[in-house]
Amino acid sequence: MSSSLIAITGATGFVGTHLTEVLTQRGKPLRVLARQPDKVRFNDVDIVAGDLSSAAALRALCEGADTVIHCAGKVAACSRAEFDDANVAGTRAMVDAARSAGVKRFVHVSSLAAREPSVSDYAASKRAGEELMSRLADGCSWTILRPPAVYGPGDRATLPLIKQLTQRLAIVPGTARGRASLIHVRDLAAAIAHVALEAPLEGTVYELDDGKDRGYSWRELTAAAEEAEGHKVSCVFLPKSVVKLASVIEVMLAKRGGRAPEVTPGKVCELYHPDWVCRHNLLQEQSGWHPSVSLVEGLRETASWYRAQGWM
């Protein structure tokens, strides 16, 4: 087995699909973990059927691999236990398999939410997963990447936001004082590949964004949307109490239907948290990686893709 083999979890997800495309374009030998192998869109990859709960699948994934990129995780769940099952226990299983296989490099794609573990169950689970990984990854070079909100073609999570920003009147679950960083999925995929292949930065947590200092206010977001769409966009901010009530009802319906809720009370707390701004650009300073997609360009491309797919 080639010593340059890269193993990827979450390869059929939004970020993982774009990352797999970047790495295959670079001619890198890949092995991916997939719960549903038929969803892997690339022919020149080795596929291991399974998920993070299968020790045998994780052993097969890591065997002979030089680098593991851990993108898999749960972003929607009804309880902290469900989040922990994927984002903590799943990370533990992945690290254990990587260590047993002698993997030299572990890149953990986390979330900016991990910086604020008290905000939501999701955020708490992502922080716990980071802390566990950093403790257990003895003998393995590791890096944690914390992207903020990720958007781009193929993403359903930010579809409601993009829909609103393309309207003349955007109805927003948030506050006027909030600020947030963003990153286009193409830039995130390039950053992950850069860290895995070209910048062996060890034992560090990197926050990633699109290069906009202090992130975006809602006024700056709507200004970018106005430029992308060619018309005026105004914001109306929904009261948190209204959105939280709707989230409670959504969780009840999701439990009855046996599905993951689209919005939970924890997600509402994330939406109304005033500061999701990346606080440093260490990856750019230390490795030479730079984002390339501007917000206006990214919004225009993403909205166009949604419309072509009939999503919007």
Protein described:
This protein is an alpha/beta fold. The chain has a domain at 6-151 and 182-212 and 277-293: NAD(P)-binding Rossmann-like Domain (Rossmann fold). The protein contains 11 helices and 14 strands. The chain has helices at 14-25, 55-62, 80-101, 121-136, 159-165, 185-197, 218-229, 240-257, 265-272, 282-287, 295-309, and strands at 6-9, 30-34, 46-49, 67-70, 105-109, 141-146, 149-151, 169-172, 179-180, 182-184, 204-207, 216-217, 234-237, 275-276. The mean pLDDT is 93.
In short:
By secondary structure, the protein is α/β, with parallel strands linked by helices. It has helices at 14-25, 55-62, 80-101, 121-136, 159-165, 185-197, 218-229, 240-257, 265-272, 282-287, 295-309; strands spanning 6-9, 30-34, 46-49, 67-70, 105-109, 141-146, 149-151, 169-172, 179-180, 182-184, 204-207, 216-217, 234-237, 275-276.
Helix-and-strand structural type? alpha/beta
The CATH superfamily of the domain at 6-151 and 182-212 and 277-293 is identified as NAD(P)-binding Rossmann-like Domain
* β-strand amount: 15-25%
The backbone outline, from C-alpha atoms, is globular
* SSE series: EHEEHEHEHEEHEEEHEEHEHHEHH
Widest β-sheet, arrangement of strands: 3-2-1-4-5-6-11
| Unreliable sequence segments | none
What top-tier CATH class of the domain at 6-151 and 182-212 and 277-293 fits best?
Answer: Alpha Beta
Number of helices: 11
Largest sheet: 7 strands, parallel
Terminal residue distance: 45 Å
Q: Could you estimate the helical fraction of the residues in percent?
A: 40-55%
Label the CATH architecture of the domain at 6-151 and 182-212 and 277-293. Answer: 3-Layer(aba) Sandwich
CATH fold description of the domain at 6-151 and 182-212 and 277-293: Rossmann fold
> Rounded to an integer, what's the Rg over CA atoms?
19 Å
Number of strands: 14
What's the mean pLDDT score? 93
